Amino acid sequence: MKKHVLPAIRNIKDLEKLTKTDYKICVLLDMHVGHLKSIMDLLKQHNIEAFIHIDLIKGMAHDEYACEYIIQTYKPKGIVSTKTKVIQKAKSLNKLTIFRVFIIDSQALNRSVHLIKKVEPDYVEVLPGIAHKIVKIVDEETTSKIIAGGLIDEEKEIDEAINSGASYVTTSNRALW
């Protein structure tokens, strides 16, 4: 188990692998709303907590009302979203938050830093996670902890992200769990 990795669960095979590891926290991506109860029950049986990515739940809206429903019904460790209103709702319900930002150019970087300062999430997931320069800037300019995600498929990329200021790295590459 790598202490700075948050397994990103996209499917049942990922879930099966996760339950055979020592990880006690994960991020759920690309889930169908009809499967959430059984997935959360399975995770609970294995004492694994989950951050649920609201924007990627199929079969429901991706707004603050869905966020409130998910929190009240499934009691996740926290919520992941690209939407400020969802992050604010989760914070108001005392859940940990991961604000996911896609940094593709300097304008996106400036806008993201502004939004991070405005909503003050617990964590910011910076994508692509291999963008170490951006991880360092976001780490220096905001007070949120950084999670690097996206395109990370080598051990050295995990190390580079952590050395740039990230607290964690999300990866769906099971070989890195």
From TrEMBL:
A single MF term (Gene Ontology): transcription antitermination factor activity, RNA binding
Alphabetical UniProt keywords: Glycerol metabolism, RNA-binding, Transcription, Transcription regulation
GO biological process, one term: positive regulation of DNA-templated transcription
Superkingdom of source: Bacteria
Pfam families found in the cross-reference section: G3P_antiterm
Role: Regulates expression of the glpD operon. In the presence of glycerol 3-phosphate (G3P) causes antitermination of transcription of glpD at the inverted repeat of the leader region to enhance its transcription. Binds and stabilizes glpD leader mRNA.
Protein name per Swiss-Prot or TrEMBL: Glycerol uptake operon antiterminator regulatory protein
Classification of source organism: Bacteria, Bacillati, Bacillota, Bacilli, Bacillales
